[in-house]
Amino acid sequence: MTESTPVDWELARTLAYEAGRAAAGGAEEIPLALADGRTLAEPLRALTDLPAFPTSSIDGWAVRGAAPWRPVGQVLAGGTPAPLGEDGTCVEIATGAMVPGNATALIRIEDSVTGADGRVTGEPRTIPDWRLPGEEAHLGEELLPAGTAVDPAVIGVAATCGYETLQVHATPRAALLVFGDELLTSGPPGAGRVRDSLGPQVPGWLRRYGASVESVTGPVKDTLTAHLDAIRSALDTADLVCTTGGTMHGPVDHLHPALAELGATYIVNTVAVRPGFPMLLARVPGPDGRDRFLAGLPGNPQSAVIALVTLVAPLLAGLRGRALPPLPSVAAGADVAGRGAFTHLALAALDASGRTATPVGHVGSAMLRGLANAHGFAVVRPGTRATAGDVVPFLPLPLMLGERP
Fold it and tell me: Where is the MoaB/Mog domain (predicted)?
């Protein structure tokens, strides 16, 4: 695969995802309190029937037989009551309490009357006011499949079942290398030098896609030796190394020679997408014999972000054991030009309904103003254009549309 044969954008996403899925690490066991944002490595199964015992859903009376009933005790949540021994008896019961054996009905406190003789009368409602064992789940039933994103609701389900820990996929470790002698790391641009905007922003995107960021290094000098040293150092701790700039074949672009020196193999080498050309994803032998990944992002800021959403996001989804979600569809809020044989990712903002995406301004590959005002990208497939009102795929940025970390 060479730079003269760019890979179709959708195929590139699939190749990146499959590479990550094949390399996904093993499971690790962590406490529930630390599981938010992780991915289940095995199905979550019920450890018991849910509820585990008949449970009152009201405050009132658990009764046996026909009215009137003589109170013989009280049962609160957390207690284990004795069975009701004879018809005509009842116990006061609290919401969440275990229903005693032999109870034939529950009477809400507001539907009951206690007479002068202390006996209780009332009518049960049509729908029983208790929860039966197994009503929510049965012992061993799969509640959530492996690959489920863990959020507070999932943690709550696990806790309800009695789990104290969860088996989750390991968090991919990422490192960022910023290439370019021309970059400033402070102050305004000038005198032929530009301010680095990728070093500050890429780690945030990586975290939103589920990676931990182990290091940010740069600017790395524009020499092959410096590139090799920086990549080797990053590979010591990272599963994924992202680089910015150097993806062309110019006089100071040393990424391709460095990859050749490291024995890397390309998974994707250039993608048929605009903006974002050229980008790459390679498999690099690690110092411990286990393969790592290197994603080469273009130096232009918006192009770099498009490389992230195209190659890095699917790769990290695979490494985390997640599914690659299908793209939602939206209506184009305005005409969007095509890019010939290339996919066009057009920065767009969603309306309040989330159903219409309108292209934003300031979208040059070196610009970030449009990105800061967008919710994602309208996807215009090769050989097509979009007219206002047309339905098109939409690739959301990870902080929008309920995307989980």
Answer: 175-318
